[in-house]
Amino acid sequence: MQLLLTLEERKVITRALEKCLAQARGSEFEQKRQTANRLLDRVLEPTLRFDADELEDLSDILSSCKVEIKSRIEVEMDPAAKNVLIEQRKTIEHAADKVTEACMMA
To answer: How far apart are CA 53 and CA 83, in angstroms?
Structure first.
């Protein structure tokens, strides 16, 4: 399934996958690391094409990101930094909506 994302959505997804890779340390996270690497390869390709399982994995990662960024927004005291986080959340939500829609069509 081909997925159309804006450049900003690609950047947010790339950062989320890179963060996932950084957090997946140790042998118990090998599967998560392999999944994140495979998805990162797909996101960096000029044409985004995912199979149904990859879309589900990407949806799960973006859902985790939404929860994390929401908690960061709640504790952020600096209004400027909070606004940046809010914009990031909006971009993640748009990308997640597109991935969810693609999941339903796959």
So the answer is: 34
Handedness of CA 34, 91, 63, 84 (dihedral sign): positive
Count of CA atoms in the C-beta half-sphere (13 A) of 15: 13
pLDDT digits (tens, 9 = 90+) for 41-89: 888 888 888 889 999 999 999 998 899 899 999 999 999 999 999 999 9
Nearest to 102 by CA among 40, 56, 39: 56
- Which residue ranges form the domains of the chain, and what is each CATH number? 7-105 (1.20.1260)
Question: In 3D, which of 67, 56, 21, 25 has the Cα closest to residue 40?
Answer: 21
pTM for the full predicted model = 0.83
Cα-Cα-Cα-Cα dihedral sign, residues 26, 29, 34, 40: negative
Distance CA 67, CA 78 (A): 20
